[in-house]
Write a structure and sequence with these properties.
By secondary structure, this protein is α+β, with helices and mostly antiparallel strands. It is built from three helices and 13 strands; from the N terminus they run H-H-E-E-E-H-E-E-E-E-E-E-E-E-E-E. Residues 1-21 form the signal peptide.
């Protein structure tokens, strides 16, 4: 009986796809690393729905030609010009890396399971991500995050068109916030000149703040890309 169980287990192991890096990943990572986060000015529109609060819509402009402290400028809040206080708060806000295609190079070359479920696309699934790949505030959620990446191979140069991050377990932030689940979907677009830029992202967090359960759903769309001078 034990012999049969061992044979079944061995067969299951042999049938399981192997997580590894391949040549297509290497090509895509090389293109990511060649992509410059400071190559374009662009506009970002962020819409946030939070349990117990009104929806907010914020429009910002990023210009890498400005001094680092002024790279992001607040354009509008809920359709109106920002107040001086809002503009100052935005200027002093702690921000992560500028959204860019280059950011994906931090993890896309890691071992993954490859499949081709849709014509023109290759999908890679990552069981976990390297440290620093996914940060929520000060918390590094990389080790507890799975990822799926859809590579568009119809384009002249293959590129990652869609990424989805999903948390595998909850975590705490700043001792007062608890995140039960996280789901992030990001999309990228190919410009006429061949550059790949962020197109949109959608984030859903569920959990609690100070013991009160809630949900945050936010979207960001990127537009008006212009070469930086």
């Amino acid at each position: 009986m034990n012999h049969i169980i061992l044979l079944v287990a061995a067969a299951a192991t042999l049938a399981a796809p192997e997580a590894r890096a391949d040549e297509l990943q290497n090509r895509v990572v090389a293109a990511m690393r060649a992509s410059r986060p400071d190559a374009f000015r662009f506009q970002r529109t962020s819409v946030t729905d939070r349990t117990g609060s009104a929806r907010t819509t914020v429009v910002e402009q990023y210009d890498p030609g400005r001094p680092a402290a002024l790279g992001w400028q607040l354009v509008s809040v809920d359709g109106r010009a920002p107040t001086a206080k809002e503009a100052e708060k935005s200027r002093k806000a702690k921000r992560g890396p500028v959204p860019s295609y280059a950011e994906l190079a931090k993890w896309f070359g890691a071992p993954a399971i490859r499949s081709e479920p849709t014509p023109g696309y290759v999908t890679y699934r990552f069981a976990r991500l390297p440290a620093g790949a996914v940060k929520i505030g000060s918390h590094d959620a990389s080790a507890d995050t799975q990822a799926e990446a859809w590579v568009n191979v119809r384009a002249k140069t293959p590129f990652v068109e869609r990424v989805r991050f999903t948390s595998t377990k909850g975590f705490r932030m700043m001792m007062v916030a608890s995140v039960k689940s996280m789901d992030v979907v990001s999309r990228f677009a190919l410009l006429p000149g061949g550059e790949v830029v962020p197109a949109a992202s959608e984030t859903t967090l569920t959990g609690s703040l100070l013991g009160k359960s809630g949900r945050i759903h936010s979207t960001a769309t990127y537009a008006a890309f212009q070469p930086a001078r």
